[in-house]
Write a structure and sequence with these properties.
The chain has about 110 residues and is mostly helical. The protein contains six helices and two strands; from the N terminus they run H-H-H-H-H-E-E-H. It has one domain (about 1-105): Cytochrome Bc1 Complex, Chain D, domain 2.
């Protein structure tokens, strides 16, 4: 009985993680891809205009810190002249934002 319970919990955890990964992709596609591109390269009209980074580039991935990416998504991003480059994400939980950061990281592994 204990083995069955443990197995059930493990299956539910894997399903929840898979759902979150899918949710992160959906959130990215809805809110981020316009500038950062569906492929993470930032090769879009808005991405070029705002200087979006290429998240498929190993050097960009190495320089990217998860806490900085989390903060940028949560609070938005401004340039040195206080011009808004990226608006803060609205209506996202911290777990949603962590999922987005993980999704961004996946671009470096493609």
């Amino acid at each position: 009985m204990k083995k069955l319970l443990t197995l059930s919990i493990a299956v539910m955890a894997v399903a929840a993680l898979s759902a979150r990964a899918g949710d992160a992709k959906d959130l990215y596609d809805q809110g981020c891809a316009k500038c950062h591109g569906a492929d993470g390269k930032g090769d879009t009209k808005m991405g070029k205009k705002l200087g979006a980074k290429d998240y498929t580039d190993a050097k960009v991935q190495a320089e990217l810190k998860d806490d900085a990416a989390f903060k940028a998504i949560k609070e938005g991003l401004k340039d040195k002249d206080d011009k808004t480059l990226m608006k803060p994400a609205e209506g996202l939980s911290d777990d949603d934002i962590k999922g987005l950061v993980a999704h961004m990281r996946a671009f470096g592994k493609q």
